[in-house]
Amino acid sequence: MTPIGCNSEPVPDPTTADLRRLWDGFCDDLKAGADHVLDPDQPWDATDRTEGLRHLLRSLARGVSTTIEGGDHEHPELAWVHPMKFGQDNPDGLYQAARVDLSHTYRLSGNVGSVRYLGFTMMSFDFDGGPIEQLLNLNGDQLGAAADGGFSVVFSPDPPPPGSDDDTWFQLPAHRSNLMVRQFFGDWEAEVPADLHLECIDPGPAVSRLDPDGLSSGLRQLLRLSVAVPAFWTGFGRRHLDRGEVNTFGHVSSTPESTMSKGGSPDQSYGQCWWRVAEDEALLYEVEVPECSYWGVQLGDVWYQSLDWVNRQSSLNGQQAVIDDGVFRAVISHREPGIANWLDTTGASQGCITYRWNQSASAPVPSLRLVPFDDVADHLPADTARLTPDERAESLRRRRRGALRRFRR
Predict the structure, then answer these.
(1) Are 304 and 58 spatial neighbours (Cβ–Cβ below 8 Å)?
(2) Rounded to whole angstroms, how far apart are CA atoms 267 and 165?
(3) Which of these, 229, 259, 218, lies nearest to 363 by C-alpha position?
(4) DSSP state for residue 8 in the 8-state scheme
(5) What pLDDT shows up at residue 261?
């Protein structure tokens, strides 16, 4: 500070100058993150690019929640952000994540609720730095929950102490990692989410004020989560288009394949391709449904994020779909076909379509057929379930209410 009465100019605080450079650099890098969204060589229309910029904003919001505000390794918070909107997020899912440092010991406790599928994965989250390492995978059946759903498990670098329950104590390598939780809902209106609490049982004092070093580290992570990770997932989905995997799952194996190196759950089989439908066309989806704990199919956009599933029926799961003699048939189109199993493109003309089979012994591959929209009825059984406009409106009203219930909104 300049002493009172002194005529000389104030000398800038070096820390303030450093913070200015840090902030300006962050803003410049964030601005450059739009380069892949606005690339004129990409086959996107103006709405796709607008959605791409919203995708960056969503990623920024999610990154702030999980880095700047998400708790540190010793004081973790199982944070969720709505909407998730990246990595072809599951419309039936409630995703939660927390950073952990496994040189410490953590307790995860709570109640498993009644969701269709509950899964926990301890893994690295370095999408742009090589294969993802998964240290542990558990599902709700492996938690040793009591009859009322209560459970408590421990993650630690140390072996279980004498007299403890070895089945609920998991000794893991002392790595910095992330705990990811997947909760998949079948009945959006009735199922109860798991109530979870994660705590470090040997923490140091909480850091309540952010210092320059903490901000610098947080902004580096934030840039990666808001720019690098979305770019990774966008490229991941776009490769289906580059390989010509359009309106066909012909490249997908009917034998379940591991996707763990990409962060996938070992309990889950995935299949996906690029979809492209014109205004006067419809894409027919058909598959024989296997025995499994959960299944679903969804449409995504060119940024590998789910389409609007709160207000539109852009996804269906085993609870919501109408099944005919063990076969699920759906119509993917821009216009209402009057069919109960309609997958609404919400105005998008192309993107990714993904299906999931959870805890299934088989992984059947659906068929896709592109037909004229006006001929849809000719390609479906005569007794295919249909909806009137009033029934559709009521279905969408209940869908929205069930979706927002999940997030307490």
Answers:
(1) no
(2) 24
(3) 259
(4) S
(5) 58
> What does the alpha-carbon distance between residue 288 and residue 303 come to, in Å, rounded to a whole number?
29
Look-up of token digits 């704990």: 293
Q: How many residues does the chain have?
A: 409
378-400 burial: b if 16+ Cβ within 10 Å, else e: eebeeebebbeeeebeeeeeebe
| 184-226 pLDDT per residue, tens | 999 999 999 999 999 999 999 998 999 999 999 999 999 988 9
CA distances from 312 to 120, 317, 393 (A): 29, 14, 10
CATH class for the region spanning 72-206: mainly beta
Tokens standing for residue 291: 């025995």
Half-sphere exposure for 57 (CA within 13 Å, toward CB): 6
Q: How distant, in Å, are the alpha carbons of 88, 94, 182, 222 from that of 358?
A: 16, 15, 12, 32
Please, where in the chain does CATH 2.60.120.1600 lie? 244-406
The H or E element that residue 88 is part of is none
Q: What is the pTM of this model?
A: 0.91
Q: Which amino acid appears at position 378 of this protein? A: D
Q: 10 Å Cβ neighbour count for 147?
A: 5
**Spatial separation of the C-alpha atoms in residues 75 and 101, rounded to whole Å:** 10
pLDDT at 15: 84
CATH code: domain 244-406 is 2.60.120.1600
CA 210, chain centre distance (Å): 29
d(CA 381, CA 374): 15
Burial of 229 (0-12, 13-18, 19+ CB in 10 A): buried
Q: What are phi and psi of 350, to 5 degrees?
A: -165, 165
Token couple for 368: 């896709």
